[in-house]
Amino acid sequence: DEVFYKCLDEFMAAASSMWPRAVIQFEDFSNNHCFDMLERYQKKYRCFNDDIQGTGAVVSAGFLNAIRQSGIHPSEHKLVVFGAGSAAAGVVMAICDLMAVNYKMSREEVLKKVYMVDTKGLVTTTRPNDKLQKHKIPFARSDVAAEENAKYKDLASVIREIKPTAFLGLGGVGPVLTEEMVKTMYGACKRPIIFPLSNPTSKAEITAEDAYNWTEGNAIVASGSPFPDVVVNGQLCKPSQGNNMYIFPGIGLGASLAQPTHISNEVMVAAARKLSSMVTPEIAKNTGLLYPAIDEIRHVSKHVAVAVIQQMQAEGTATETLPTNFPELMKLVDKKMWVPRYPNGELYLAAGPKPRATDEVVEAVS
Fold it and tell me: Which of 82, 227, 301, 339 could potentially form a cystine with 250 if both were Cys, beta carbons 3.0 to 4.6 Å apart?
């Protein structure tokens, strides 16, 4: 670690010196480094970790919309999280932050509703002969006696005992959610929330087809990879896709324009809230979707960029003088967005989205 951080310290200093307006995004660092890296650099440089914060913002936004569709107050939900790596930790903390803002719940109140499962079963403070990794400690349950850990030895036993109303899959090991488990959840609530978020589809914890079939079409589903629509008893069920591209382009653009001293956790919450709000009650009712249409990604990114700039302005971290009213800020963001235009556009981009009239067009150099 000493050699690792010596090298990374040198890189962060050099990159920030060479490109002082740059936004640095961390991606795919191991669990034993990514959390410490974020803690080490977040308030010193203009940076963020997409695996922890980007995933957290996207999933928490979709989860907030899923809660609304479920008809159950967050305080009545029980959430099982399968997986205990950087993505899982980031998602749970993001959900806590978003619930705190939207439902005035404390982080402690939200965490009481979370049951995190790793390779050894339910994460608790009392598991015998187990030294928890630092990033798991905030999610370890302290209400399980040492002798009761055997009751929660794996995902199946946790679901059987807890009877959750919501499931987040971030284990990356493939199908683990069985028909029995799903029907246990369905017995606990009329509209269980099922998010198989691991990528690619071969690593997903359950298919959308099974999630819908085993709940008579009543599950609320969002996945990391795309799944096709499913018809159950004549009802069309459309799974959502929670992809990080809903968040990180807008954060990067907003930060590059506002030039904040650092990117705070509150900025990530602002991005998640904006993404969540872009699915109106009418859209949710008519489609059941938790995220905007994927072909609206540029439109989404503009709104996320404006939201994070406004948050940076409000908290005083923005160093660039930019408009503060929404219309002018949106006009600026729209102007600054880059649109790729290839010489052989008919060949390479025939099926791609057409740039909007207000988008700036820049010729790509081959």
Answer: 301
